[in-house]
Specification:
Elements lengths: L7 H4 L26 H7 L6 E5 L4 E2 L4 H11 L4 E5 L18 E4 L6 H5 L25 H12 L5 E3 L1 H5 L5 E3 L4 E3 L2 H5 L3 E3 L4 H12 L13 E5 L10 E4 L19 H7 L12 H8 L36 E4 L3 H6 L1 H13 L8 E6 L6 E5 L8 H8 L6 E2 L17 H6 L2 E3 L1 E2 L10 H5 L4 E2 L2 H14 L6 E2 L1 E3 L13 H6 L19 H11 L6 E2 L7 H4 L3 H10 L4 E7 L3 H7 L4 H17 L5 E6 L2
Parallel strand pairs: 1-3, 1-4, 4-5, 5-8, 10-11, 11-12, 15-19, 18-20, 21-22
Antiparallel strand pairs: 2-14, 6-7, 8-9, 9-13, 12-13, 16-17
Helix pairs in contact: 3-8, 16-18, 18-20, 20-22
Length: about 625
């Protein structure tokens, strides 16, 4: 059995979350809910808040909602934390509801990017919002992170603004904006925040909070991992760094012409100077190869994909002197360059993805503006992942596990006009891990949470199942999900922490599963069995995305999943069937899906169950 992966190699470089001396306000104890009004503050004995969090979501005190996690984590450090949820952004007055924060504002658009929350893919305004009571749309502005930051500055202009959440995290460099069809500046510039925290930010936020509480000016806090900020090119604090041109990390290439989707296969072949017609006497395979391979002949060992060959450079016979990583910064093409050149835009984004491993990532810098308006956006390396003990600490905090009482009707119920769909969906589900090492090119999980899997302990997960059983109103015995970004990456990772820290591959499972990756599903099987054996637990369903190319490596896991944890249907995402698009997506060939489907049907039949796969495709 493979040993469960630990992040102790990274943890040696990080101060544990629980090792800080609590702030003096710890004496006030734990709030039943973080206050959303002055009356609640007075009931807790507070005269002010140390930190006020502003969010585009309704406040639900549950570890699946970012503001609850951040708020409870800061509370555990001794800070008095208030929440302003879905404020009216037309003026600064609603942002003054809890008074002036003693230390800083914490701002997020919410669990979703506000533009995706507000608009359909056809750019039509949505009428609903799953994170709002009554599923009502329009409770947050476009680009909420920017608007909220502006209103916070208007309310109390001398209070530092710390921006976070998925919207800030994924817009930390110059980025293409689908809604306006243009490249926008880094959100750090547009929001005018003092500090951006990207990714899962507990470690960075706790350090920043204690340093601000110790009266350190926020403009001097420029060395925290997982943060981004603006600095002037002539700022003395930026001196002493070894600047690396990004083209030495990744060579900008050419842009391939887009294929017209309305052309027939023959027309596409003719445009490329080839043909789809079978020549006289040519074998069937020759005709197929002219137009691409059909789905039936595909598997993971596609001979058309040659393995990468690493050839030693004879010019590098002598050992190169490289600058220390902790004082190296990679200069990305400027905003003005990527805005006007799609090749440089793609190059800048590839470099950002190449520098996501906390073990070897370097700082990035991107210029915005020219002349007297020139500013540099600095992005520090990603945060050190949380250890299992730290994950337990975060998830075991005193969550009320429900919406704030202010959303309830006169009977104290959260139904009908007060129902919050996002809460209804996750109220009986449990998050057991973070991160994903899949590296799929269409997905933002790696860019946000990182590729190092951070897992909770078995005892912590079981305790949460028991808490749901005993404390959550309306529980009928079914846990709706036990997973995370993926269903089956729990405790998976590199066999060697040293190799993991040095690796620069964007994916551990593409083009094939890395030989250094553990694929043992034993710890996950153990949790499934222990969880469903608990008194009062009738069923544990698995609803998270299943990585089926990993699952087929463990037939015992597939059997356990299929025979005990599928509620008739299992959603699975091959995304496509053809090798060409799959290689662009960095997804496994359709052969892996076929193998999983065979196992699924075999184990369903053995259990005497009629069950079905629901494949998802990107269209």
């Amino acid at each position: 059995m493979n040993a469960p992966v630990d992040v102790s190699f990274f943890a040696r470089a990080a101060k544990p979350l629980t090792s800080y001396r609590p702030y003096w306000a710890k004496r006030f104890g734990t709030a039943p809910f973080l206050p959303m009004s002055r009356a609640e503050m007075e009931k807790l004995g507070w005269d002010s808040c140390d930190i006020v969090l502003v969010t585009g979501d309704a406040y639900i005190d549950h570890p699946s909602f970012g503001m609850a996690v951040i708020g409870r984590t800061l509370e555990a450090q001794g800070f008095r934390v208030g929440i302003i949820a879905q404020p009216d952004w037309q003026s600064a007055e609603p942002f003054k509801a809890l008074g002036k924060p003693n230390l800083f504002w914490g701002v997020t658009a919410g669990n979703m990017d506000s533009m995706i929350n507000r608009y359909t893919a056809d750019r039509k305004i949505r009428s609903d919002d799953a994170y709002t009571p009554g599923d009502i749309g329009g409770k947050r502005p476009d680009r909420a992170a920017i608007v909220y930051s502006q209103r916070c500055r208007e309310a109390f202009k001398d209070v530092p603004i710390v921006l976070g959440g998925i919207e800030g995290s994924l817009r930390r460099i110059a980025h293409y904006d689908y809604w306006s069809d243009k490249v926008r500046r880094s959100i750090v510039v547009d929001a005018k925040c003092d500090l951006l925290l990207y990714g899962n930010a507990e470690r960075a936020l706790v350090e920043v909070a204690h340093r601000i509480a110790a009266r350190e000016p926020i403009e001097k806090i420029t060395d925290v991992r997982g943060t981004a900020f603006v600095r002037r090119p002539d700022d003395e604090s930026g001196k002493g760094w070894f600047e690396i041109d990004s083209t030495s990390v990744d060579e900008p290439g050419r842009v391939e012409a887009h294929i017209n989707p309305y052309m027939t296969t023959s027309e596409q072949a003719a445009a490329q100077g080839s043909t789809c017609s079978k020549e006289d006497g040519a074998p069937e395979s020759g005709a197929a190869s002219a137009c691409g391979t059909g789905a039936s002949g595909q598997n993971d060992a596609n001979p058309a994909i040659a393995p990468i060959q690493f050839v030693a450079n004879p010019a590098l016979k002598v050992k190169l002197k490289v600058p220390p990583r902790d004082k190296s910064v990679i200069r990305l093409p400027s905003y003005e360059q990527v805005k006007s050149d799609p090749v440089l835009y793609a190059h800048a984004n590839r470099v950002l993805h190449l520098e996501t491993n906390p073990g070897n990532a370097r700082a990035l810098v991107q210029a915005h503006g020219e002349g007297v308006t020139a500013r540099d956006v600095w992005i520090n390396p990603p945060p050190i992942p949380l250890t299992t003990a730290e994950m337990d600490h975060v998830f075991d905090l005193s969550y009320a596990r429900g919406p704030h009482p202010s959303y309830a009707d006169e009977n104290g119920s959260h139904d009908g006009a007060t129902k919050i769909p996002a809460w209804e969906m996750i109220r009986f589900s449990i998050n057991i891990m973070r991160g994903c090492f899949g590296g799929c090119t269409f997905c933002s999980i790696t860019e946000h949470e990182g590729r190092i899997i951070q897992s909770r302990s078995e005892d912590s997960i079981i305790q949460e199942i028991e808490d749901i059983r005993d404390k959550v109103k309306g529980f009928t015995g079914t846990i709706s999900d036990l997973g995370g970004p993926t269903a089956n990456m729990y405790r998976l990772g590199c066999r060697s922490p040293e190799i993991e820290a040095a690796c620069r591959k964007p994916s551990c499972v593409y083009p094939g599963i890395c030989q250094n990756l553990t694929t043992d599903h034993g710890p996950l099987i153990k949790i499934y069995r222990r969880g469903r054996a608990l008194k009062g637990i009738k069923k544990i369903l698995i609803g998270s995305g299943l990585r089926y190319d990993l699952a087929v490596k463990s037939p015992e896991y597939v059997k356990e999943l299929v025979q005990h944890h599928v509620g008739g249907y299992l959603k699975i995402a091959p995304e496509h069937t053809e090798q060409g698009p799959l290689t662009k997506m960095m997804k496994p060939g359709i052969g892996s899906y076929d193998r999983f489907k065979q196992m699924f049907e075999k184990f369903s039949e053995e259990a005497g169950k009629k069950q079905f796969l629901i494949p998802y495709f990107i269209a």
